[in-house]
């Protein structure tokens, strides 16, 4: 079954142009309905000893946040109208700490949620939290567009970042609409070892055989990391192959462990220069 309901999750017209453009491309590619959920982050209630002071200051902060958001919403509306495809524009507001769950609720009523990859700097942490909110709470895949992405389709050359985890299996299942159209599918493992409760005797062979039975002939590349972080190895291989999307499981390890020790999910969400189709 192909994707028929595409959702872009946005907050700024310029920063989220890659997500809007990728959502448009998918809608054209699959002849799908496309919508944009415009999120407004509201400030937390300020701390003060005098309740009347708190109420007045917070009301002013809320008014300013809504005014700035409305200006951005109008820019987003103008952008999607220029695209030539009918966009449904939705709005939602919440305290910043709750935006991830709000985004997840909207994502549940779509086939795939498209977002712009977070970058370091202002708003980067909030955007990362929104992506994580969708991944952990929506039950839908997240498609992450890198900054500057431009194109008219994805899925011609697909890389599957395979670690034999439940999360990778879930992401691969969500990628069926893209795999059905792919001309080239490459399964990549990094420093994989034969293991009974994982890759089996030949890392990548079992999942490649499964894909073949589904009609997608896949090449397996068992990559030697050579000291590189898994994310770096995956990206370098994807770029060498000319991949237009990387399919991978998200947070096979806990978020706390990835925060402390690092991990492929967090690294790719900060570095990827190709779209990422992720699921948890």
Write the element-wise H/E pattern from the N-terminal end onward.
EHEHEHEHEEHHEHEHEHHE
Number of domains: 2
**Oligomerization state:** single chain
* Cα separation of the termini: 20 Å
Please characterize this protein's 3D structure.
With 280 residues, this protein is of the alpha/beta class. It folds into two domains: 5-145, HUPs (Rossmann fold, 3-Layer(aba) Sandwich), CATH 3.40.50; 157-279, Rossmann fold. Helices cover 42% and strands 22% of the residues. The chain has ten helices and ten strands. The protein has helices spanning 17-30, 51-82, 99-107, 124-137, 166-174, 176-179, 205-213, 230-241, 255-261, 264-271, and strands spanning 5-10, 33-42, 87-95, 112-116, 142-145, 157-161, 184-190, 218-223, 245-249, 276-279. It has a ten-stranded mixed beta sheet with strand order 3-2-1-4-5-10-9-6-7-8, sandwiched between helices. α1 (17-30) links the parallel β1 and β2. α3 (99-107) packs across α4 and α8 crosses α10 (264-271). The longest helix has 32 residues, at 51-82. 43% of the residues are buried.
Write the layout of secondary structure elements.
Elements: E1 5-10, H1 17-30, E2 33-42, H2 51-82, E3 87-95, H3 99-107, E4 112-116, H4 124-137, E5 142-145, E6 157-161, H5 166-174, H6 176-179, E7 184-190, H7 205-213, E8 218-223, H8 230-241, E9 245-249, H9 255-261, H10 264-271, E10 276-279
Parallel strand pairs: 1-2, 1-4, 2-3, 4-5, 6-7, 6-9, 7-8, 9-10
Antiparallel strand pairs: 5-10
């Amino acid at each position: 079954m192909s994707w028929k309901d595409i959702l872009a999750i946005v907050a700024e017209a310029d920063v989220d142009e890659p997500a809007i453009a990728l959502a448009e491309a998918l809608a054209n590619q699959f002849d799908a309905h496309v919508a944009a959920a415009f999120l407004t982050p509201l400030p937390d209630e300020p701390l003060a000893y005098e309740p009347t002071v708190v109420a007045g200051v917070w009301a002013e902060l809320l008014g300013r946040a809504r005014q700035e958001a409305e200006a951005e919403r109008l820019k987003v509306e103008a952008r999607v109208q220029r695209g030539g495809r009918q966009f449904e524009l939705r709005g939602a507001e919440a305290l910043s700490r709750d935006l991830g769950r709000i985004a997840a609720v909207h994502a549940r009523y779509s086939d795939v949620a498209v977002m712009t990859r977070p970058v370091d700097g202002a708003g980067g942490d909030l955007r990362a939290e929104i992506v994580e909110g969708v991944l952990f709470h929506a039950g839908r895949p997240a498609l992450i567009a890198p900054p500057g992405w431009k194109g008219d389709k994805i899925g011609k050359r697909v890389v599957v970042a395979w670690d034999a985890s439940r999360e990778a299996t879930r992401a691969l299942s969500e990628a069926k609409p893209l795999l059905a159209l792919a001309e080239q599918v490459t399964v990549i493992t990094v420093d994989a070892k034969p293991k009974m409760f994982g890759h089996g005797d030949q890392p990548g062979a079992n999942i490649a055989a499964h894909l073949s039975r589904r009609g997608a002939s896949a090449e397996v590349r068992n990559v030697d990391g050579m000291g590189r972080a898994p994310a770096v190895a995956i990206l370098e291989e994807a770029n060498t192959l000319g991949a237009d999307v990387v399919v991978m499981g998200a947070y096979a390890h806990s978020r706390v462990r990835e925060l402390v020790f690092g991990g492929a999910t967090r690294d790719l969400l900060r570095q990827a220069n190709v779209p990422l189709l992720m699921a948890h």
